[in-house]
Structures are given as structure tokens and as C-alpha cells.
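Troubleshooting entry. Yesterday's outputs looked truncated, so today I'm pasting the complete records for two proteins to confirm everything comes through intact. If either block looks cut off, that's the bug. Protein one:
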Amino acid sequence: MAKVSVIPDNLQIEVAPGESVLAAAKAAGVPIASACGGNAQCSTCRVWIVDGMENCSARSEIEERLATKLHLPSHLRLACQTTITGPATLRRLVLDDADLDIASLLGKEAQARVGEQKNIAVLFSDIAGFTGISEKLSPYDVLFLLNKYYAAMAAIVDENRGYIDNFIGDGLMALFGVENEPDFALLSVKTGLEMQKAVDRLKPQFHSTYGIDFGVRIGIHYGEAVLGSLGSGDRQRLTAIGDVVNIASRIEIANKEAGTRLLISEQLYEIVRDAIVVEDYVRLRPRGATDRMTLYSIARLTPEADARFPHAAKKRPDAAEDAPLVASKTPLNVPVIAGETYYWCACGRSGNQPFCDGSHGPTRFSPLAWTAAKTGTELLCLCKRTAKPPFCDGSHRRIPEPAA
């Protein structure tokens, strides 16, 4: 008989050879949960093996499937599937009804996790001067602007295999490496660079529409975090906890002091150094930190690294790369303002409007920057038959359409 200590009950039970921990615990009067009756169809009987892991049986096939689905680390075991051959100490994890609800993760998204430690990259972004922007605009306009901005940012994060942890007012937190994606550290930097490019495309539109200067600061850090699901019921979401999150937030804030737009930590730099071009570096003590840090301002990926990602790593179903060119049969008289820069392309993602907001993400249709010389109207269309886009001369009307 194996002697097993049970925490927090401070009980010692005996487990016979071939007997499951669940059966032995119930026989000893330990109030251990088992919503499915001990058939490995739930995770409510799971226990934390504090000591004596070497005396525990290997996971059965059915336990392995459930552990994989719930991302259970090796020290968390299902009591109904575990037998013990020697001394061990375990902690019962489901203690009351609230614990039971938290533990019942079956039937939910695979992102539901009980907690695991791993190295990830954490990206924080924040809109520069957002307080002034929100004071200048109506609440409706603030929400419209944020939703437009977040739609563009979320597409970029998704395309680079990142996971958006949270939108926090005007801030965004994204995680990379949640599923051990290849090159996730470099993809986090690529995401930051593409986010800045997208913001540059949005700037003219926000300036002409709202009269505001729009910019974003981004900070990225690499380190160990605890990944797990927070919340209850349908409100659960995957999040990361640890110093890596706090430091990434401080690095984002440090951009303001350094006068930069995208900073990464030294830890992340050491991983991606051969694949990036550094614009500058700074030594400073981020707000809330005790020690000075070396932070790197990133200009771009190297040509070799960029060639490894010819297209978005995770394409959306409506990716414009494979979309047909849109041929507008009605050129548009569009009002323009002298000195304003507009962006035009044939992506077909702008609701047949002539100017592109970049929301389609990076594709072979690179937006064309054009600055209006005078205030008035210009004739534009998406026919792609003009000699000098974005202006339309109407010549496509004189070219017969190809036979169907």
C-alpha cells in the first residue's frame, strides 16, 4: 500500500496497487469532486502532485487527450486515471462550488487553460496623446476612431499568429508564442513594424476627418509568464501573468521619454538581433522599474528576414491577395484638401471608395501616396486603366469589355 498525503485536508490515505487515487480518496472520506463519475470526461478530480511524481503512473490515453485539450502541465493529474506505487503528496484543487465551475472546462474553447509557465513575447501599444484626442472629439467619434484603429491592428496581430489578450481603453496587449508558433519572437517585432505602417496609412484620414495628429507607441518584451484562463462561465479569456507583462507595459511607456515609436527589450533583441535593423538604442529606467534597461528602437527587418515572410503568416479568409481587381464603371468626383496626403490602391477593400485605409493588410497592392495640390475635386476610379493613378481619364469606357 502506498502512503499518500492529501493537502489541504492534512489527511494521509493508503492507495492499493492498481487502485486509482480517486477511489482511494473517496474510500477515505476525502471530499474530492468527480462530476463525470471518474470516467475522465471532466477535469474536476484533478490534483497537483506536489511530491512523488516518480511514483505516479504515466497518463493513460484518455487522460492524455483531455490533458492536451486543457493544456494541463505534467504535475496536474486526473485522480480517476492515476495510480501510485510509492509515497506521494498531492493537493486537491476543487474545494467548493466555485472551484467546480472553474474546473469544468470541457465544451469550451481550447484556449481555456488551467495555467502553464512558458516563454512568450508580449506587445503593448498605446495611442499617443489620447486624452487630448478624446477631449476634442464626441464620444461617438472616439468609439468610431478606436474601432477603426483596432480593426486594422487586430488583423495584423492575427496575420502574424499573435493572440490579442485585451483592449484596454486606447491600449492593446498581444501575446506571441501561446501555441509555440515558429519564429514567434520575430513575428512580434514584425507585428509592431506593420502596426506602425498601418497607423501611418490611417494618419491622413484621421487628420482630415477629425483634425487630430494620430500616433501609436509600441513596446515588446520577451520572458517567462504564466498562461491561463481568467474569469468564469462564458467570460473566460486567456491571459498572461508575470513580470514580462509589467515590463512590456513599461517599455511601451518609455517611448515617450525616448522620443521613439517602437522599442524592444534587450532580452528580445538577443533573440532577433540577426533579423532586424536597429535604428537606435537607449539606456533608461522605465517608469516603475528599479534598474536601467537597454531598449532598442527598430527600423525594419533585414531583407533576408523579410523574405521569410513573403505574405501574412496567417491569412484571413478575405485576404486581398487573392481578391479580383475591382473595376468601377463610374468614376467618382472626390473632394480633396490641399496639402493632405491620400492613399489609393486597387485592393477593393474600401467599399469602392477611391482612397485606401490599409485595412486589408499587407498585400501586393501597395497603397499609393498622393498629396493634393489644391482644394477641390478629383476624378478617380478603380478601373486600373489610367496612365497615372489615382486620376481617371475615362479611357476605360472606350475599351470593349472582354467576352464572357
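Protein two, checking that the full record survives here as well:
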Amino acid sequence: MINVIDLFSGAGGLTFGFSYKVKANKFVKNNKFNFLFANEYNHQAATAFSTNFPKIPLMECDIANITFQSLKNNNIFINEPVDLIIGGPPCQSYSTVGKRQYDQRAKMYEEYTRMLKIFRPTMFIFENVTGLLSMKNNNNKPVMQDITELFNNIDNDLGYILYTEILNAKNFGVPQSRERVFIVGIRNDVDYQWTFPKATHDNETTPYLTIEGAISDLPILNCGQTIESYNDDPHTDFQKLMRGNQNILYDHFCGIYGEKITAVIKAVPQGEGRPYINNLIENGKLDKKYYLTSGYNNTYGRLWWDRPSTTITNSLGTPSALRCIHPLQNRALSTREGARLQSFPDWFRFFGNKHERNSQVGNAVPPLLAIALSKQVEKIPFEKYRNIKESNI
């Protein structure tokens, strides 16, 4: 088995991809990976992780507090070589949406480096937003240069050869256009050339999955309503995969909007957003009281029914945030719809209030993309490399 540690696990999008595989259009257990432990700081995300992966030991704490002693104190004993570390530090500091700042969260790659130094895995997979590639630190030095220098030279003769690529989730069967940068490190004494998974969907030979193909079987939802049961059978293979044998519909709810937001949502057609509304007002077709003075061009944006979703964020249920209005219904996406567009199965649970659940969805690596990565990892003969460099066990 391949021994894995998951850092910054969140609810477990990456972990899902190394715990399950798709067989006969069903999610089934993948027994090739053995999780030694996972780490998550946020309590509600940690609750979701432990609920969905009850057999994986979880350290619910700041990563800075992880040591061999703290692991032992929690009855976690690392008695075998670590083959793989997965996980991506918080991305908000690097995001090109909103305020970019080189704060403590932006420096979490230093803690990631400390984990590499302690466990000396054969390889690691580090995921983050593409804004990481253009981010600079307080000395105007590219953060990627910092990361590269640290990962190349962890400690004395320990370092990692890096492979970096931007992957888009829609190319791997996820009904969402979501670009993320993946940095894969192969330990410098390991003679192995990493290759990223090849796209399975290119919209020519294999069409991208659309929002319609992902969520059209879910019940129509009105404002202020919660629906906990299905009233239609799955229409597509993707919907059958997501539904599985699930009978209870979790997290399909919608809040109540004020009069202004309700009017704005009703006026926005598919593919349009804030500029469209303000143009209606400027041309006398909509009352001036609905003028939108703040936000980006795609705030109050309605999605397209016949296309993949735009990037799902932790504000997926907030109409005034980035494009998240349902293509056909006058409301923002429900948490379950967001989870579907991320490729989480319907039986996967999220916890906390609406914002906390949506954050768990929006911050995750899409499971189907994670599965594509795990297939590449399975090709590596880890047993061949385990004794080359001893870990600090």
C-alpha cells in the first residue's frame, strides 16, 4: 500500500480522490492508499472530514503544532515510511479575487516544508490557486521563487525536483471550469519522471459536462425552502454517479433575499451580471434604486445551463458574490448544487452554518480531479524507493 499524509485537508476533496475510484459508474473504495493521518485546523471542516473518513486519524490543530510527540499524544504512530504528502495551504492570500496580502496564511508553505523535512516522503502534491504564480512577498520577491528554493533544498542532501502545471477541472469530467496550480515534488534521490494526468474531456472528442447534466435532477428550490428528498430519477451518467444509492437529499436549501436582490436576480439573464443590470437602469428599463455600486463585473452573475459552471467559491450561495445564480431559478446555488459541480457525491456530508458548508465545498479539490491524480501516483513503484533515504521516524 501507498502511505499518505493529508495536510490542510479541509472536508477532504483530495483525500476522496485517493480513497475512492470509479468502477462501473460507481464510487468504490480504493485500497491502494493507506492514510497515516490528516490535519485540519477549522473545526467544522474537521468534523466533515472525520464524518466522511472515520477511519483516518485526524489532527485537528494548527499545522505548526504537529510534531512526532504531538502525534504520539494523539495515539498516532508513524512506524512506516511516508510515500506521499498531499494538500494545499489556504489560498485566500494568493487569490486574484479580493485583497491579496502576504500574511501568515500566505507563509504556510514554510510549515509544509517542515513536514517534508520531518517525514521525507518520496513525493508530494501541493495544490493552490493560480494567483500563487504571480504573488510576491513583502520584499517583492516572487513567492514561487521562495517555494522552489525551499522545496529544492529542504535539509542538507534532502530536496525535491518540482513539476508544475495548471490543471482545469473541466478536463477531467468535472462540470466546472476551475483552474488550479499543482506542484508535484519528487525526492531528489528518486529516479522517476512525473507526468501529469492527461485530459479526458476536451469538448471535441469528449464534451465537457454542463450544469444541466450535473444538477437537472435536483428539485426546484424556492427562496426560504429546504428540500430533503428527490422527486426525479437521475438523467445522466454523472447524476447517477453522484446519486449512488442515496435517498436523503442533504444541503439543498435556499435563504430569503431582500426586495432589491430579488428584483436584480429576476432581471439577470444567463451569462450576464452587474454591468447588465446597471445598463438597464441607465437606459430607463429598471428603477434607479436597483443600481449596483460595488462588486466585480461577474457579481450578481447568472450561470449558463448548457456550459460547465465557472469556478465554485466559498461564496457560492451569495448572489452579490462571484457568478453563482442558478441558470433557470431565481436564486443562488444551494450547497448541494455547489457540491455536485465540484463532483462530490450526494452522500458526502458538510457541517456548520451555510457559509461554513459552502466554504468546505468551495475550498476543496474536486474529487474527480483528485482521482485522476491518484491514478498517476499508483504508477510509481514506491517500494523501490523506501530505503534510499531514511525518514525521521
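Both blocks look complete. Sanity check on protein two: The mean pLDDT is 92.
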